[in-house]
Structures are given as C-alpha cells and as structure tokens.
Amino acid sequence: MADTLATIRARRSVRKFKPDMIPADVLDQVLEAGTWAPTGMGRQSPVILCVTDKAVRDELARMNREIMIEIGMGVKLGMDPFYGAPVVCVVLADAQAPTGRDDGNLVIENMMLAATDLGLGSCYIYRAKEEFERPEGKEILKKAGIEGDYVGVGHVILGYADMSPKAAPRKEGYIYRL
Ligand SMILES: Cc1cc2nc3c(=O)[nH]c(=O)nc-3n(C[C@H](O)[C@H](O)[C@H](O)COP(=O)(O)O)c2cc1C
User: Fold this and answer.
1) Which of 60, 86, 148, 178 is most exposed, with the fewest beta carbons within 10 Å of its own?
2) What angle in degrees, to the nearest 10, is found between the helix axes of 2-10 and 100-117?
C-alpha cells in the first residue's frame, strides 16, 4: 500500500515536456495498465488510440485548440493543448455502453498512475468528445481501424517532464465518516 499511495501522490499534471520519444516497451506498459481498469459489467467498453505519429498528434492538437476557441476559452495563438508531449493517447468508449464514460475515465487514471511509476509525466486533456464528433476525428479513427460508434472520453498526454509539478493541498472536509 505504501508504494501505491506514493505513486498516487506523485502523479501530478505535467504541462511542459521534453521532445524525447518514449521507448516502445515503456509505452506498452502504460497501455496495458489502461486495459486492466474496472469496467461496468466487465464490458471493457473503452478503446485506446495511442498516437506517436507527429502529423496525427499535431492534427489532434489543432482540433483541440479550435474546440477551445469555439467554447470560448482564452487561447494564445498557436498554443499547444498537449504542452509539447510527444505521445497522445485518446481513450474512447463504446457509445452504446451505459457506463462508457466512467469506464474510460478509469482507464485514463490507470494509465496516468502507471506512467508515474515508470518515470513519465502525464496530464488528462479534455475535449475528446468534440474532437471525435468531427469528420476529421472520424477519419483518424477509420485510419486506425476503429470501427463502430465510439465517443471520445479524454486524452492522456505522455512524455518526459520538463517541469516539477506541485500538488495543491487537499481541501478540508474531503472525507466524511459515519
Ligand atoms: C476531467 C478532466 C479534464 C481535464 N482537462 C484538462 C485540460 O484540458 N487541460 C489541462 O491542462 N489539464 C486538464 N486536466 C488536469 C487538471 O487540471 C488537473 O488534474 C488538476 O489541476 C489537478 O492537478 P493534478 O493533476 O496535478 O493533481 C483535466 C483533469 C480532469 C480530471
């Protein structure tokens, strides 16, 4: 338990990455960790699209930035919503699964904790739903061989941290007991 809690505490959002690519065997462990997440009724409703191809990664970043602007978030010209991370994993869930989004979010946390244990930085990035409602997003899924009706849950960006993230103190009154 000491190790688990230490990993959970150590996982903090990284928002500045070195350009170095993650070795395939390390990345495989992060992906495998995602697949062991609990899912409603054991349906394993999510899929993980792991993007290491720079052109596809940059296309996702472009879409994500455009969506930020569309929903009225203040965005600096050309900002990278993936903070320079060389790997972007998208977690999507079967649109028919009643627990799809919940399943997907558990996959994401498993991946981020595994990444921490492996010495990688990570951050959850939102707006995957809107990204994969777009024709360009659907085209990327098709290219990856993902068929069927999938809803974007979120992104896990991965790479080697170029910053030391600080944790906010935990709020008062987080836990109640009876
Ligand atoms: C559902 C969800 C969506 C998030 N979306 C983004 C995002 O789009 N961009 C970002 O920089 N961080 C995003 N984050 C990261 C949070 O901002 C971060 O977890 C929070 O500030 C707490 O910091 P910590 O992860 O270091 O504890 C998201 C986190 C969650 C859980």
Assistant:
1) 178
2) 100
